Amino acid sequence: MNEVDYQELREAGWRRKLTPAEAARLQGWLALHPEQQMEWEAEAGLNQLLSQLPDAPVASNFTARVLQELNRETAGVPDRAEPAGWLARWFRRPAAGLAWAAVLMVAGWIGYHQFTKPSGTAQAHDLAVLFKTVGQEPSLFEDFDAIRKLPQADDEELYAVLNVQP
C-alpha cells in the first residue's frame, strides 16, 4: 500500500464505515507509519461525532431556489440586487479589467500634470522679466560677483521662474 491508497482510505472513511478488508489494509499502513496513527484516530473520532449530528433542516422550496439560481447563472442575467452588477459585466475578464485600470490611471496622470503645471504664458512672462533684468547689464553673465549683487528674490519666486519644486 502506498500514500495514494492511504489517502483513498481516508476519504472513504469520511463518507462511510470502512470494510474489514479496508480496515486491515489501513492497520498495515499505520503499523508501517506510526506518525500518522494519531492523525487517523483524530479523523476517525471526528467522523464519528459528525455522523451523530442531526441533519440540518432544509427549506421547503430548496430545490426550486437552487434551480432558479442555476437558471439565472446560465442565462447570464446580472443580479439586479447587486449594486455593482454593471461593474461585474465590464470587468468580467481580468485582462479587460487591467486594461480599463491602466486607461484610467493614465488619464488621471495626464489630467493631474495638465492642471498642476503652470501655463506656458506664465512661464514666458517670468522668463521675459528675468531677461529684461539681466539684459541691462551683460557683465552679470561674466562675473559671478556681479550675479551676487543682483537684488535677492524670494525663493518661491525663483522656484516659480525656474519651474522647479522646492
Task: Sum up the structure in keywords.
single chain, 166 residues, 69% helix
Question: How would you sum up this structure in a few lines?
Answer:
With 166 residues, the protein is mostly helical. The protein is built from 9 helices and no strands.
> Spans of 5+ residues with little confidence (pLDDT < 50)?
none
What is the SS-derived class?
Answer: mainly alpha
Proportion of residues in β-strands = under 5%
Mean pLDDT comes to: 78
- H and E string: HHHHHHHHH
Biggest sheet overview: none
Helical fraction: 55-70%
Give the count of helical stretches: 9
Number of strands: 0
Write down the overall geometry: elongated
Report the end-to-end length measured between terminal Cα atoms: 74 Å
Give the topology, please:
Layout: H1 3-15, H2 20-32, H3 37-52, H4 62-75, H5 85-90, H6 94-116, H7 120-135, H8 144-148, H9 155-162
Helix pairs in contact: 1-3
Characterise the protein shown here:
The chain is built from nine helices and no strands. The protein has helices at 3-15, 20-32, 37-52, 62-75, 85-90, 94-116, 120-135, 144-148, 155-162. It is mainly α and 166 residues long. Helix 1 (3-15) packs parallel to helix 3. Helices cover 69% and strands 0% of the residues. Among the domains are: 3-52, no CATH class; 120-162, no CATH class.
